[in-house]
Design a protein that fits this description.
Blueprint: H1 21-30, E1 35-38, H2 47-56, E2 60-69, E3 87-92, H3 96-111, E4 119-120, H4 122-125
Parallel strand pairs: 1-2, 2-4
Antiparallel strand pairs: 2-3
C-alpha cells in the first residue's frame, strides 16, 4: 500500500520542522514514495525548491501551506476574550491556478494579517 504525507513541515517551519528539503526528498525516494506534500507553517518559502527537487527525483510534488487563521479580521491587532479561537488550516494546491491563489493568500497574510504570525481570515479565504 502506498503512503503519501499530506501534512509535512520542513526547516522552513520555525521551531516545528527540522528536516531540510533535499534530505526530506532523499528519504522519500529511498522509501519509494510516489508523492509527497510540503505544508510549512504560515509560509511557502520552500515551495519552488521542493517542487523542483521532487521532479528531479521522480516524486509527485504536492505544494501546500498550514495557514494560521485569525479569529475575526486578519487586520485586527487586539485580542479580546470573546473572540473565536485561532486555528490552523492545511491547504493543498491541485494545479497552477491553485498555486497562484495560495501564493496570493500567503502574501496577504504577511502584508495585511501579520500579528506575531502571518494570518489569514475568512474574508480572504472566500
Amino acid at each position: 500500500m502506498d503512503f503519501v504525507h499530506l501534512h509535512l513541515h520542513s526547516d522552513n517551519s520555525l521551531l516545528d520542522g527540522s528536516c531540510n528539503i533535499s534530505g526530506l526528498i532523499s528519504r522519500a525516494k529511498s522509501l519509494d514514495m510516489k508523492a509527497l506534500s510540503l505544508t510549512d507553517h504560515g509560509n511557502m518559502f520552500g515551495a519552488i525548491e521542493f517542487y523542483q527537487e521532487c521532479l528531479k527525483n521522480g516524486i509527485k510534488p504536492i505544494v501546500g501551506i498550514e495557514a494560521y487563521v485569525a479569529p475575526g479580521n486578519r487586520k485586527d491587532r487586539v485580542k479580546t476574550s470573546t473572540e473565536e479561537p485561532a486555528y490552523h488550516l492545511t491547504m493543498l494546491v491541485k494545479n497552477e491556478t491553485g498555486y497562484r491563489n495560495l501564493c496570493k493568500l500567503s502574501t496577504l497574510s504577511y502584508k495585511e494579517g501579520f500579528y506575531y504570525k502571518p494570518r489569514m481570515d475568512k474574508e480572504i479565504l472566500k
